[in-house]
Design a protein that fits this description.
It contains 23 helices and twelve strands. With 467 residues, the protein is of the alpha+beta class. It has an eight-stranded mixed beta sheet with strand order 1-10-9-2-3-6-5-4. The protein is elongated and about 80 Å long. The termini are far apart.
Length: 467
C-alpha cells in the first residue's frame, strides 16, 4: 500500500520543468514593495552562500501590481542552517518543517526547497493519497512542481532581481487562469483543501479556474467532509473575511463545493425561498467586504450568523407550524444547525454563542413596549443584532422600515422615545412580513388575576397581568 501511495504521489508531479528567466527590466517587481524583514532574510541567506528566492503569493501579487502583506521565502538552506543565521528564528511544524524569522510584528516564513521524495523515505509519508509528513528536501525545480497552482510557482531571485518560471505561471497570469500543477485528482487527494484554495484565488484575482482543475470537484469534493474542521474554519475566514467574500461565496456555489462545507446554507438556497435567502447572504457578504476594504473590524460570528440563517429559520418555522413553542423552536433550530455546521467547520464557542444571541434577539425588535425597547438598546449584543436586522431589511422593505425605527430609537433619549412608540403598544410599527411573522408565535394570552373579595362581599376589578 505504501509503495503504491508513493508511486501515485510521484505520478502527480509533471516531468522536470524547463526554466524561463524574466530579467529585471521585463517585470514590474520593485524592492520598494517588499517588506524590510523579507529583504533582510533574502540578503542574509544570499550573503551566506545560499540560494534565496521570494516565492508564492507575494511574487504573484507583486507581478499583478498588488501589495502583499505576507512574504514567503524558499531556499536551499535547511531549517537548522537558517536558524544558525538568525537569532530571531524559531523552527515550527512536524508535517512541514519551517523556519520563522521574527521582526517585531512581522514573521517571515522560510522553507527549504521540497523534493519529490523516494519510495520508503521516512521523511515523506503518504496515507490514502494524502501527504501527512513531507520533509524531503530537493532542488528548486522539484520545489516548483510540488506547489499547487502555476501562478504560485514563480520565484523572485534576490541575486539578480530576475523572476524564474518553471511551470508556466507567467502565461497563466497573462491569461487570468488557474491551472493546477500535476494531475488534479491526485493533487486534491493529497490535500482536499486545495479545491477551496482554487475557489479563493479565483475570487480574489478575478481569474477563471481551468476546466481540468475544476472538473474533479464533483468527484473529489466529498473529501472536504473528512478534512479537519479546524482547518476548514481557518480557510473559511480566508474565503469570507479577506475583502472578497461575496465573490468567494459565488464561486463556492457555482463550483458545487458549497454543499460540502456549508450544507445547511446550500440546502436553504435550493428551497422555495432560496432567492430571498441568497439576496440576504450576498448583502451581508457585500457589507463585510466593504468593512474589510475600509479597514474596519469584522467578526466571524456575524458572518456565520448570515450564512446559516436560512437553515435556522426553516427548522424553526417547521417546528412552530407543528405546534411547538416559538422560543423553544428557535433555540432548538439554532442548536441543531450549529451542531451540524461545527461537524464540518469548527466554529469556536465564543463565536457560536454570539450567533445564537443575534438570532434570539430578532423577535425582540418587534416588541415596542418602552421598557423592553430600553432593555434591548442596552443589551451587549444589540449592535450586532441590529446590523443583522438591517441586512434582513435590505431584502424585505417592511423589515427595512422596522430597522429605520430602531435607528431613530438609538438616537433618542428616554423622554423622546415615547414619541416614537405607537399609540397602541399592541399595534406593530410595520405590518409583519412573512419572515418576521415566522420569528415568533402569537403572544401568549395573559392570565387575569382576581382580587380577593372585600369584606363587604363585592368583587374587585379584574386587572391584566403586568406587560
Amino acid at each position: 500500500m505504501r509503495r503504491n501511495n508513493e508511486k501515485a504521489a510521484q505520478a502527480a508531479a509533471p516531468a522536470r520543468p524547463q526554466v524561463r528567466v524574466i530579467a529585471r527590466d521585463q517585470h514590474g517587481i520593485s524592492r520598494r514593495n517588499i517588506s524590510n524583514g523579507a529583504l533582510r532574510v533574502l540578503y542574509r541567506l544570499n550573503e551566506a552562500g545560499y540560494e534565496a528566492f521570494l516565492v508564492g503569493g507575494a511574487v504573484r501579487d507583486l507581478l499583478l501590481g498588488g501589495h502583499p502583506k505576507d512574504f514567503d521565502i524558499a531556499t536551499n538552506a535547511t531549517p537548522e542552517q537558517v536558524r544558525g543565521l538568525f537569532r530571531n528564528c524559531r523552527l515550527i511544524g512536524r508535517r512541514f518543517r519551517l523556519a520563522h524569522v521574527v521582526f517585531g510584528q512581522e514573521i517571515v516564513e522560510v522553507a527549504t526547497f521540497r523534493g519529490i521524495g523516494e519510495e520508503g523515505n521516512l521523511d515523506r509519508h503518504v496515507v490514502d493519497g494524502r501527504i501527512v509528513r513531507d520533509n524531503v528536501y530537493g532542488s528548486i525545480e522539484e520545489d516548483a512542481i510540488r506547489r499547487d497552482f502555476r501562478v504560485n510557482a514563480l520565484y523572485y531571485n534576490i541575486a539578480d532581481f530576475s523572476v524564474r518560471d518553471y511551470v508556466g505561471g507567467m502565461a497563466d497570469l497573462e491569461k487570468k487562469e488557474l491551472h493546477l500543477i500535476g494531475d488534479p485528482e491526485l493533487r486534491y487527494r493529497e490535500d482536499p483543501v486545495r479545491m477551496l484554495r482554487a475557489v479563493r484565488l479565483a475570487a480574489k484575482l478575478g481569474f477563471r479556474i481551468d476546466e481540468s482543475a475544476e472538473r474533479p470537484f464533483a468527484r473529489e469534493g466529498q473529501l472536504l467532509c473528512d478534512a479537519a474542521p479546524a482547518r476548514l474554519f481557518d480557510e473559511s475566514l480566508k474565503l469570507f473575511l479577506s475583502g472578497h467574500g461575496l465573490a468567494s461565496f459565488r464561486e463556492l456555489d457555482r463550483s458545487g463545493l458549497l454543499q460540502f462545507v456549508f450544507p445547511s446554507t446550500a440546502a436553504a438556497l435550493a428551497r422555495q425561498r432560496g432567492d430571498e435567502f441568497r439576496r440576504l447572504v450576498e448583502h451581508g457578504l457585500s457589507n463585510t467586504d466593504q468593512r474589510v476594504q475600509a479597514g474596519k473590524s469584522v467578526t466571524p460570528a456575524f458572518l456565520f450568523a448570515v450564512l446559516l440563517w436560512g437553515g435556522v429559520r426553516e427548522r424553526a418555522e417547521r417546528a412552530i407550524a407543528a405546534g411547538s413553542d416559538a422560543a423553544q423552536a428557535w433555540d432548538n433550530a439554532a442548536e441543531a444547525v450549529i451542531r451540524e455546521q461545527t461537524g464540518r467547520v469548527a466554529i469556536p464557542r465564543r463565536f457560536s454563542l454570539v450567533m445564537e444571541e443575534i438570532w434570539a434577539l430578532q423577535p425582540r425588535f418587534e416588541q415596542r413596549v418602552k421598557k423592553r425597547v430600553l432593555r434591548l438598546l442596552s443589551h451587549p449584543r444589540f449592535r450586532a443584532a441590529f446590523d443583522f436586522l438591517v441586512v434582513r431589511g435590505e431584502v424585505d422593505p417592511q423589515l427595512a422600515e422596522l430597522a429605520q425605527w430602531w435607528e431613530q430609537a438609538q438616537e433618542s433619549d428616554s423622554s423622546e422615545l415615547g414619541e416614537l412608540l405607537p399609540q397602541s403598544t399592541a399595534a406593530p410599527v410595520v405590518a409583519a412580513s412573512d419572515e418576521s411573522a415566522a420569528l415568533h408565535a402569537a403572544p401568549r394570552k395573559r392570565r387575569r388575576r382576581r382580587r380577593r373579595k372585600a369584606s363587604g362581599g363585592s368583587s374587585g376589578d379584574v386587572t391584566p397581568a403586568d406587560s
